[in-house]
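Internal ticket #5521
Category: modeling
Description: The requester needs a full-assembly model to guide mutagenesis choices. All entity lines are attached below as received. Residue total reported by intake: 972.
Assigned to: D.W.
Attached entities:
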Amino acid sequence: MATEETRYVEELADKDDFSEWYLDVIHKAEMAEESPVRGCMIIRPYGFALWEHMQRRLDDRIKATGHENFYFPLFIPESFLRREAEHIEGFAPEVAWVTRGGNEELTEPLAIRPTSETIIGYAYARWVQSYRDLPLLYNQWANVVRWEKRTRPFLRTSEFLWQEGHTVHRTEDEAERETLLILREVYQDFIERDLAIPVIPGLKTEAERFAGALRTYSLEAMMGDGKALQIATSHNLGQGFAKSFGIQFQDADGERKYAWTTSWGASTRMIGGVIMTHGDASGLRMPPRVAPIQVIIVPIWRKAPERDAVTTMVTEVEQSLRSAGIRVRVDWREEVTPGYKYNDWELRGVPLRLEIGPRDVQAGQGVLVRRDTRARESVPVATLPARVTILLEEIQQSLYKQAWEFRQRRTYRAQSFTELSERMADRRNLGFVEAWWCGDATCEAEIKTRTQATIRNIPLNQPGGSGRCIFCGRTANKWVIFAKAY
Amino acid sequence: MATEETRYVEELADKDDFSEWYLDVIHKAEMAEESPVRGCMIIRPYGFALWEHMQRRLDDRIKATGHENFYFPLFIPESFLRREAEHIEGFAPEVAWVTRGGNEELTEPLAIRPTSETIIGYAYARWVQSYRDLPLLYNQWANVVRWEKRTRPFLRTSEFLWQEGHTVHRTEDEAERETLLILREVYQDFIERDLAIPVIPGLKTEAERFAGALRTYSLEAMMGDGKALQIATSHNLGQGFAKSFGIQFQDADGERKYAWTTSWGASTRMIGGVIMTHGDASGLRMPPRVAPIQVIIVPIWRKAPERDAVTTMVTEVEQSLRSAGIRVRVDWREEVTPGYKYNDWELRGVPLRLEIGPRDVQAGQGVLVRRDTRARESVPVATLPARVTILLEEIQQSLYKQAWEFRQRRTYRAQSFTELSERMADRRNLGFVEAWWCGDATCEAEIKTRTQATIRNIPLNQPGGSGRCIFCGRTANKWVIFAKAY
C-alpha cells in the first residue's frame, strides 16, 4: 500500500508552495474564481455542485436531529448588534454597512449580517413565552458578509455561504447537550464520513471563543501542509444573548427565567478543507459521497466504424450506472485526445474513470481506473454498476484512512517549549503538537507571538492526569493541540 | 360537487377584505412575520418548509433541462449596473447601497444585487470564447434586494429569495427557444402540476418588459379575489447585455459575434400565489406535492387505559405512512382538545387529517378527513398508506380543478371600454377581461389610468384574426388579458 501513503505534500515538496498549488488547482479545476468585488468569489458550477451535495447531506443530519429550517433577513439594524457588548466588539471591524436605500439616506445604518444571533434573538424573545414552547431548534442556510482584509477562496472570503443553527433551551445542561450533539453527531459525523476528513473535537480557549459565547467548541482538521483548519464550530451561548434580547419563559414552577441558547455554523470553508486534505500533485481528489461526478466515462475510437459500436455501448453503460444511482458523465468531446481527458478529470478529482474502446466493446467490458491509487481493472459490463458502487465506497474509506495516517505521522508530542518552537519552524514536517498547558492566557499569547502557533482546541478526549505547562512549567491539566492555522 | 365549488372568495365576501384575510392567515398559520427591518420578513419554519419543497421540485426541473447551479457575489459595483443604460434606469430607485466596509468608506458604492445580469455578464464575457463553449446554461438560488416602498409578505418584500437563470446562446433562435422552454416546460409545468395553480403564458407588452430585455414572457395566475399575480418571468435579453459586457465568440465561420442571452426568475412570491389561490375561510389549503405536512394524525382518548392502546396504534400508523414516503406528523399535545387541533391544522392547510380514537383501535381503522372537501372515511389500518397516497393525488387534482373553474367563471370578454371599466369596478366579481388591443402604448396607459387594470400579457395562445381595440376602436390583432394585479 506504499503508493496509497504517498501524500501530495511530499509530492509537492519540490514545488515548495502549497499555497500556490491551492490557488492553482481551484482555478484549473474551475471550482471558483475571483470576482470584480474585493474579497468575494464566484463559485463556479463544479464547485457549487460539490457544495450542493454537501448541503443536502448535512441538512439531512440537521433535520434528523429534530431541527427545522427558517429564514431571517439579510439586514440587521445597527442598534441590534450593539445590544450584546462583546458581540459588537468582536464583529464591528468586519461589518459591511448599507447606508442608502433607493434615493434615501437611511436614518439607521443596516449591517449585512455577519452572523444572526441578534436579529434571531429579537424574534425568539417573542416566540418563547412558556417552558412548553421549548426547545426551539432552528437553522438557516444563508449568505453572510465579513469584511476581510486578506482573503483566500473558500477559506476566507468577504461573503460566504453557510448554515447557522440557533436553539433555545430550558436549562444549561440541555443547551450544553445540544452544543455537543451538533459538534459530534452532526458535524463530526458528516465531515468524517462524507468528506473523509478526520477531525479533533474540542473546546476553544477563552481567547478564541465566539464573541458573546459561554463556550465555543470546534472541529480541527489537518491540511496537507500540516496546518490546522477550524472546520466547524458549535457555541453554548449561555444566557448572554437571552439577557440582551429578553428571551424569557414562565417555567413549570411559575417563575420567569432566562433561557439558554446555542448557535453553530459550518460554511463553504469546508470546501477548502476537502481540497487541502485530499488533493495531490495531479489535482483534486473528491470524496465519492459528495463528488459532483463519481464516474467519468471516456469513449475511445480511431476510425468511424469503431465509433458507432463504442457510442452504443457507452450510452448503455451510462444508463445502467445512472439507474443504479451513480453520478456519471460521458466526456464526448472530439477536439481533445483521451490522454488530455484523463488529465482533465484527474485534475477535477473524479473518483473513477471508465475507459471504453473498440477492444472493450468486443470483450463486453470497461476499464475502471481509480483516482486515488491509479489501480486499473477490467470489469464485465453486466457487473459494472455493482463494482462501481463497491469501489466508490473503498475510495471513500481509503481517502479517510490516508488523511488519518498522515495526521498521525504529523502529530508530535512536545516536552519543552524549544521542542515546540522547532516543530513549528520545520516547514517541511509541520503538524500538530500535543502538549500540556496551564490554562493561562498569557502563556497562550506568548507562544503565539513566538511561534505563530495557536492552541487549536482542548480535545474532548483528554488523557487525564497532569503535567507541566509547555511554556511556564507550572502544573498543567489541559492537554492541548498547538498548530499553525488557516 | 357543489361544496367543492364554493370558493373562499364567496365565503369571505362578508368580511369583504381579502387583503386582511391574507395577512391574517399568514400570521395565524405561522408562515411568516414582520421583521424589525423595514420591508423584510421573517420566513417561519412552516413557511420555509413549503419553500424547500418548492425549491427542490423546481430545481429538479431546472437540472433536468440541462442547467447547472453556481453562485455569484451579493455585491455589484455601481459601475457595472450603469453599463446597460435601460437596466440601471429601471433598477436605480430600488437599489440598497453599501458604502462602508468595516471602518473604511468604500471608494465605489456596492449595490446589493437586485438581479445579477450585470455581474454574471462580466464573467460570461471571459467564459465564452468560441462557439464550442456555447450554450452556457446556469442558474443560481439567491437572495436579492429591491428597496420597496409598499411591501406585503411574500408578494413584495425588500429582500426576497429566488432563483435566477442566466444563459448564453449562439443564435437568436436558440435564445428564444430557451426563453420559452423555461416558461412552459419548467415554470408552467411546476406551477400547474405541483402548486396546482393554472397559469396563462404570454408575452409582456413593451411597457412591462424587464429593464434591458428584448422580450419578456410571464405566467399570470388568478388569485382568489380575481386579481392577477405575475408568478414567474422569462426574458429573451437579445444582444443588449452581450454588447454592454462584451460577450463575444468566434463562430465556426471564424467571425467574432455577439452572443444572445436570456434570464428567468421565480421567487418566494409564488408562496403568496399558493396562499391566495387555494386558501379558504378556514385558512390555507396546501397542495399535497409541496405540503410541509401531508397527513396530521390526531390521537384521541379520554381515560388512561385508552391512551396506551391509542398511542401504540398511532405510532405504528405513523411509521407505516412514513415508510411509504408520506410526510406525516402526530399532534401529541395534551394541553389542547382534539377540536382545537382540527382547527389548527385546517388553518395550516394540511391536506389530510387522520383521527384515531379508542373505537378506531378496536375496529383496526383510522378516520381520514380531507381538507378540501371535509369528506370523511374510515380506512382499515393495513390499507392506510395506499389510501392516503391516492387521496393526496386526488386533492392535488381537485385543487387545480377548483382554481381552474374559478378562473373560467371569472374570465370575461369585453366588447367595449365601458364594459371593461364596469368589470374592473365590480369588486365582488373581479377577474380577467379578454379583449382586442391595437398594440399602442397610449391606449394601454390610458386604460391603466382610468381603470387601474393593466395588460397582464398577450397570451401565447391567440385566437387569430383581428377585431377592434377595446380603447381606440382601431383594427387590433392582439388578444390580451386585462386585470388588476398584485
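Resolution: model delivered.
Comment from assignee: Chain A has three domains: 2-278, 295-394, 411-483.
Ticket closed.
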